[in-house]
Amino acid sequence: MKDELCADNGAPTTSAAELTTLLQETANGNTDSFAEFYQSTRSRLLARLTFILRSPILAEEVSQEVYLHVWIAAGNYDADRGSPMTWLMMFAHRRAVDRVRAEQSLADRERVFGNTQFPPDRDVVYDEVGQRFVERAVAREVHKLRGRQREAVVLAFYGDRTYAQVAVDLGISVPTAKSRIRAGLITLGRRLSSSLYDLP
Known about the structure:
Organism: Nocardia nova
CATH architecture of the largest domain: Orthogonal Bundle
Pfam families: Sigma70_r2 (PF04542), Sigma70_r4_2 (PF08281)
Domain RNA polymerase sigma factor 70 region 4 type: 137-185
InterPro entries: RNA_pol_sigma-70-like, RNA_pol_sigma-70_dom, RNA_pol_sigma70_r2, RNA_pol_sigma70_r4_t2, RNA_pol_sigma_r2, RNA_pol_sigma_r3/r4-like, WH-like_DNA-bd_sf
Protein name: RNA polymerase subunit sigma
Distance between the termini: 78 Å
């Protein structure tokens, strides 16, 4: 079955063989053949690019890059490796993916720049005071824990120890270390949930 499509201007469909001839003539610098190839493929190309890019404006921009490539690289087309439309769409797909990545990269840079140059409005002093209040409240409640729970929690979170290391340091089994740490955290969570309501 021939690879055919309808030209934008309503002209009869153009077969793969005819498109191949147009590409060969374009490679020889024939601007009329290039214009005919453009008119014969533009509609389908734009539809594909719009589907990938989700933007008719970007699709139009990328299509210009694609056809510039056609004009420059028409001589590289090899009919044994696929139809003219396959060749065209393959390059168009690569260019569209490159544009998607470029647009995403630009959006990421703008977001980072915006966050850096224009940070969200907030009361820095209040945040620092609040953080210190929380730290003091945690330290106070840790100090109130029962002896065995306190030493296990302090080793795990202030000493940055694993369960196994806490067990070795305290001379207890790993399950016992886990049990003490979990019990201590449950107690801390319960006490802090009420004491932090006192935050000014």
